[in-house]
């Protein structure tokens, strides 16, 4: 097992290296000069030249790339061209904000998605099945920004149940310690604040969860339908086992593997969807951090931001692979 | 995580069960948080923010589209930074409440010598910085010394407004001296007509010399000025919090206890936050939402006086736009009023000059090119293009105050041009690319605009249309020696009337040569809760909130 993990981790190196290279080349292939953007429309030619030199942008690309890699090896993710702050120093609050939101969204997506899928398969062709699958179809095709604004309108303005945007009530702010506000409020024992933080999570969290939830539901349903037709399920039922246990204990265990794979892949899409969600709900996360960096041609932030997101994505998928063997002992990694 | 081979099944089962239990716990927490909170929410966050009750702190939340880059104003060029620093720092002289006339600021009096080379500033006494440092002539000199010792990369606005740094030839400031405890004398190498207007710009806010020394590069994260509010904290991409400076030198100001600038990037999301009472002021209101706001008793709509121009640039080095007749024909062919009505929702003014009307020197005697397709066809005929021609029409990919929807405006222009036989193909690039390619003269005709920095005519006409600025902001590559001479003369002319006369001439020349089709001067819209009083949006885009109050 450990051997397997080690091997997988080693395999990550060329993957991430290749990714840095592709990102590096793409952001330099799109025209637009960071120096020009930083100095604004009224900057003189000389000023722009001088800044390019200071930023090392007039070196050939391969020198810039190797300088960047050299930095990465020593844990230096580069320095933001816009704020002149090392990425390592400023990235954490953004990352924490996105992780908090994504974890919340994933939990919603998994709980509702898997259960809806199971029940749909269990009562195949019932009204619940049709309704759930229609909702799932709408969920998959609904643009996040539309859903987000619609939810803001209904739940924040018309019903006044939830706040429209942001991570906390800015009229009554909390002090950040870890960057995860839920944990912050828990360790400082501010339980009224915890409920405020939770309420701020609901709208962006459900908007972000919608697509993965729908996909998970559909995957679970089809996977379950297949398993429910198999012999051992029939045997279990003929033994007189209650249907609930047949479905949730015996069938689910065999049906869950492809669902896990989908969940792992959805996590990647979730991080992409975070850019839109974070924009509509004014969530100060890493999606917006990278998005703003693209507008400013802030090369180091784009490169390192994407690197961090990619790293998280591959780690999640490694974790999912390991989870297979936990769910299905027939799968072994040696 | 690691499984025992023999007991694998059982162990796995237990784990799944405990995982399920954990999730159940989490859901119930979420649900509890949800239901428990909603009651508080509806009580606490009433429709209009629940502010202004007696004894409560007056906190104003200003929702805006983006975050600041740095709070050290001299190091940045973006409006979102100045919006905040305007309230932390004071400048030697101020702009008027809603115009760009010069008024006293930290300097209670200022005099310019006849020759326009020596300026004497008498400073307010008894002013302190937020860190307790005394404000005096030494502090002012220290600021100017710091700026002059920098370079274009550190202090971009200093270089572009004062012609350079240190010993550079273009640098207009010869010396800045403390000629008394509260008197500063600035000597210039040559007269500079917009000198005082430059000094009133937000980047030239006077910072505490002690804080600059202590903080060094971190000053932008811990700004210290003499302004009505002092800095509290900054959560990047989220909020900047500033609070009342109790010892502010202007009696009775500021009225608010705290101001929070909150970044909400999406325009609709920001309006929703305003409707829900989570913010008190919102900028970047879509013109199409104006009516919703006006018809809502809990809200009020603000118009920011225009200091911008949106235009269609015609690259004069590219055929057929090298022929002034063709450029004039373009001017006649486009129905600007229709564009303003449709895409600015009438919240803008049809432009006839490159200058917006609020700026002194605006030539109102010029008659704009009227919408007349027949005249346009006749002009094309004269230019030997009676059968029309094909061209690329560049549409701005991003909304700007002066161009709310580049794509749609381009489509309107396209159909106007088709009327006179010109076939325009609309193209667009991502924003930074767009600017770069346009600056290289790669566009036939392109939509663009400009927002003024210091409210001076020079900042429009020289910057955008003088031959010196070809390759940077003169995207049309328009060159005219006569115009150049006039603009250079106006830069050093201290007599306001003579100067305005020069600019009037300049606008006539530009009108005749027609390198642009000036389209519109837009009035950016803001909205606020009905409890906000005394908020007066400034044409420069950065608003001083010292007199703003909540009722």
UniProtKB/TrEMBL annotation, chain A:
It is a multi-pass membrane protein. The chain crosses the membrane at residues 12-30, 101-123, 130-155, 201-220, 255-281, 301-324. Keywords: Cell membrane, Membrane, Transmembrane, Transmembrane helix, Transport. It is found in: Cell membrane. The keyword Cytoplasm does not apply. The keyword Phosphoprotein does not apply. InterPro entries: BPD_transp_1_N, MetI-like, MetI-like_sf. It comes from the Bacteria. Residues 95-324 form the ABC transmembrane type-1 domain. Pfam families: BPD_transp_1 (PF00528), BPD_transp_1_N (PF19300). Belongs to the binding-protein-dependent transport system permease family. PANTHER family: DIPEPTIDE TRANSPORT SYSTEM PERMEASE PROTEIN DPPB-RELATED (PTHR43163:SF6). This is ABC transporter permease. The lineage of its organism: Bacteria, Bacillati, Bacillota, Bacilli, Bacillales.
